[in-house]
Amino acid sequence: MSRNTLIFGFGLAVALVAGWVGFPRALYVQRQQPLEFRHKTHAEKSGIADCSECHALREDGAFAGIPAMEKCAGCHSERIGESKAEATLVDNFIKPGHETPWLVYARQPANVWFSHAIHVKRAGLACTECHSTYGESDQVRVYQVNRISGYSRDIWGHSISRLRRAPHEGMKMSDCEDCHRRHNVEVGCLGCHE
Amino acid sequence: MKVTRRDLLVWSAGAAAGLVVTPVPWKLLDDSSIWSQNWPWIPQPTRGPVEVKQSACTLCPNGCGMRLKMAAGWPVGVAGGSSHPISRGALCPLGFGAHQLNWHPERLRTVRRRATTSSWSEAKAAFAKACSEGPVVIIDGYPGRAASSVLESFNQKRNGSYRVVLGRETRALAPYEAWSGVPASALGYDLENAQTIVSFGAPLLDGWGPPGRFTRLWAERVAGAGPQLRLIQADGSLSRTATRAWRWVPVQAGCETALAAGVARVLLEERLVLARGPMPPLTLVDAASQTGLTTDAIRDLARTIVAHPPAVAIANDDNPAIAALNVVLGAAGASGGIVRRSKPATSYVGADAAIPSARAVLIDSSVPWDFARQTDAEVFRFAAWDGGSSKADWLLPAPGFLEELTDVPTAPTSAIETYAVAPSLVKAPAEVQSAAQFLSSIDPTLTTAEKIIHARCEDLFRGRIGTLIGRDRTSVAKLDSVQKFEEQLWKGAVWVGERSRPDGLRCELQVWPTAATSARPESWSATWPAPVLPPLASKLYKESSLREPPERRNA
Amino acid sequence: MSARYGMVIDLDRCTGCGSCMMACAAENNVPPLQQATVRTGLTPMLVRKVSNGLEGAARREAFIPIMCMHCEHDTPCVKVCPQQAVEVDKATGIVMQMPQRCLGCRYCMTACPYHARYFNWWDPSWPAGMEKSLNPGVAVRMRGVVEKCNLCHARLHEAKEKAAATGKREIDPADYVPACVEACPTGAIRFGNLADRNDPASQDARSPEAFRLLARIGTEPKVYYKSKEAWVRALAESKSGHGPETGSEVQHG
Lengths: 194, 555, 253
What we know:
The complex is a heterotrimer of chains A (194), B (555) and C (253). Chain B has 555 residues and is an alpha/beta fold. Chain B contains 16 helices and 21 strands. The N and C termini of chain B lie far apart (87 Å). Chain C has helices at 19-27, 76-80, 107-111, 153-165, 179-183, 200-205, 230-237, and strands spanning 5-10, 46-51, 61-66, 86-88, 95-97, 118-119, 146-147, 189-193, 210-211, 223-226. A 4-stranded mixed β-sheet of chain C has the order 8-1-10-9. In chain C, strands 2-3 form a two-stranded antiparallel sheet. Chain C has a two-stranded antiparallel ribbon with strand order 4-5. In chain C, a hairpin with a 6-residue loop joins strand 4 and strand 5 (95-97). The termini of chain C are far apart. In chain C, 53% of the residues are buried. Chains in contact: A-B, A-C, B-C.
């Protein structure tokens, strides 16, 4: 092989490694959730059977998302367990009266309107369709944020090439469009944008 | 082996080729496009569950019903309260920016003594000292509130005076007070039953009384719902009300007295009314020349006015000639005219009346900024916003929009008694204090405004009359506890009294009044008590040239 | 649901108070920048004053609220946009502008026959703390993009969400009321589904006093006006003649 080919190949190799391995590591930075919340513990120990017991629709149809501290304080106004996470919750947030600053995996830009009421109640989608089995998880998922765009890695999807993705991975506009196309629901720009 | 420039170029070519088949350029494109739309300096709205609260606007004595969207404790949207029986879901244009006023750049947040920053304790000490040295005059721009009661009773114990600044709608009722003994604060305009309204320059469709009251009534009648309503606007220029009126009578500005006299003369001479006097001294010819109309035009106007009774004349100030015209028309104390709406009422002394020499003057935050008094006394000016250079010795930061619990007495012009409450929905900044709170802290024997509000609710509940109008209508007699009464009031319901008999007002007038007032033409924003406009209003009016920007006020 | 939302504005009832402008600006998080002029302003709802051109006792004036007319046919802005940042929504007829997709070429502003589109010349900013009072339902735009009236689509979203939460298929018309309609103290602005013959707005639009601005150019605007006064109707159709009365020359660019 000629010297030029070798050097070319060398450059190619460096770029491939940097692009496929280095780039995702550099692009995303990990952030800690304020405390280690365990869905499984709550499902098992407190008999909370359904997602909607905490993640509910309000009267006006708006979705509560991650419940406000008020919801947690319903049971945790004092410590009822022994975990460090609960201690953090009660001491740092419930007692002083601050909202827990959760990092939201699915946060969309301000100009996106997504209605849980329409997707869950009218279309009958199960929570797991988009949020997979997170409700049964034993530990709080790692939150990674894209340094440039500022959004969670969950929006693009874990796979940097968007190939071989898990069924629930990705919450970009194209993912919404794909599902809408599959189910033949036409919405236009007005349907999803503020 | 030497690394040549060519090597570098070949290496770079390889790297570039490689990069293209990595996610780097594509992902970077996508991410940077998002990055470029997410500048950190672009403000984002408050996040949080949205609650809807019903309350009342407290920026002026009209107390229009208001519906507020609240998120995380902050007001994020404003609309009229549709169930309010007087304002009927309408707000003035400035009301739509009211929720932003608390952050106006001119918001006062610290106590100021002339040009320097001071403190509440110093202000209190100075005021207490002033009270001990001489009489104090207290000026209130929104009489009838519980806070007003505190202001008044403070002075009752000392040798001071309590004065009020009344809006032009109430000032226009002053002549009837002189002729009947019924205080102007107990009178209202029974517009709902009128069929002909002659307005002498009063901007009925543009900021007179609670905006919704007349605009809704007029719009309904114009559309044909209910008995006919003829709005005749006698105006020097084509004002907004004049453009929409059924008829515009173009008179020379300032000639309302002559026009009223001319019309009264025709009504009496041609026996178009039941009254037989008092006859104005002005002849028809003189009236015509002063107003710029022909004598035929005045005759025609008089006949038109009585063609569809009941008719009522509305003045833009306390011009007694127009009130006298109402007496001639039979509108004083009749359905469709000037009516008495409540039993006991206070006779207020206007702040225009001679103020005895005082040691200090305390001006409540409800007094319009352009209220200026020439005085040597030490002036303690409460205000939530700074309207410009102030001649006040002390500038004291007061609560702004919905930052303190206050009650809403009957709106000026209303023909029925109402009562409502505006709870404190917005957290007040740490340093603010209202005049009533200030006085209560100096004299702890004073009842607080909050206690007075509860006492008033108790009185209304025990009276067993009237209706609570909110989401539903509930007769007070059907409520079983004062707590239920208060609960509804705190949620934005309005207590409405019963329509009183209009003949509760009897005017004695033998001679046509001669005293005339100098009608000072007021700009559209003159009755707006806050010295500043919501920033959206100044921006929009400028960009649309729809209104003249108000002059900067100085006090 | 296939609706054609539109408005009928009764000019005999418009008093030019400006409540609609204020409510629109507050609802849409329009920044209260004070440096704009009539040319560079941002007023998705704009009330203009017109007159019959006479002076003295014969003078007549009226006020005309102007906003996006939501043209149904050959919509000019849709045709010229290189970014497809605006489209006529199939389900509602609302001409939906996406400021986030706009690249700011302002071709649509030139194309709009009604001068109803506005450019964000500056980044939005509010006095310190005032951003707490922003409407959470509407995204804040950055500078360099065009925006216009979207018939308060955020309120449509809220109505849809409420309908879905309560198990209904169609929205309750009382839940979807644009800010200007709600604010008007004389009820001059009437809003409704023009495709529904029983809708009061639709009936108003078919009344003999109803007219549209520049009807002759064929864009089929969905905002109608109504007046019993002949001079107002004549003004709407005049090829030349008395334009809006403003303090300075108005040329939107």
